[in-house]
Amino acid sequence: MATLASRHRRLSDGWGELIDLSMQENQILSQTYYPVTYFEMFGRPWRDARRLTVPGVACAQDGLVDLGCGTAQQWFDLCAMVGHPEWIDEQSPLSITEQANLHAEEIYDWLRSHPSDEIRELATAFRIPNAPVANGANIASLDHFQARGSFVRNPRDGFLQPAHPYRISSVHLRRPGPAPRLGEHATTTGRPN
User: Which Pfam families match (predicted)?
Assistant: First the structure.
């Protein structure tokens, strides 16, 4: 859309337009789900209600942790992990989500009494899908973001900023440069002020 707008402007006044794309907007387009686009295309929201997955993202003793149970085996292992093997019922007519909702309070109590690293280590041993939950204070220190080089130092002010939202193997991408100061391009585009 921005390219089209710039082209239209170029055809109308001969100058074109400086296009400033935010990194957030670019990264949103790299996500799996497109709720805004979905609404535009189908005239209804992606979902009509939030459906919590238990345990999902939950409070640990020292922050947040993410756990998921998509199979019966993972649910059985979660039951054992939180100290309640008696919850395992291979003949239950209830779905995993329904069973987890029945025991949500006890699951959350157990999670709140353990540090997130310990929960993740134990969940990994049980082969239960898990992940750290990122926030502004810890996101740049998470292993997978460090391994991918997801954050780089801002060349002007030295703070951490997102790197390119995409990766291309065997191609070296240009490191981010400093953003222009307000009005910096007003005289460099050739357009009268």
Answer: CoA_transf_3
Q: Are 190 and 15 in contact (CB under 8 A)?
A: yes
End-to-end CA gap in the chain: 25
DSSP string across 23-35: HHHHHHTTSS--H
What pLDDT shows up at residue 128?
Answer: 97
Of 17, 6, 27, 20, the closest CA to residue 179 belongs to 20
Instruction: Identify the band that residue 54 occupies on the pLDDT scale cut at 50, 70 and 90.
Output: confident
pLDDT at 48: 67
- CA distances (Å), 183 to each of 15, 24, 57, in order? 17, 22, 43
Its CATH architecture, for the domain 56-132, is 2-Layer Sandwich (3.30)
Q: Could you tell me the pTM of the whole model?
A: 0.61
Report the Cα 154 to chain-centroid distance in Å. Answer: 21
DSSP conformation class of 71? S
Q: Which residue has the tokens 């973001």?
A: 145
CB 111 within 8 A of CB 87: no
Q: Is 30 left (phi over 0), alpha (psi -120 to 50) or beta?
A: alpha
Sign of the alpha-carbon dihedral angle for 46, 51, 53, 58 = positive
Whether the per-residue pLDDT at 20 is higher than 80: the answer is no
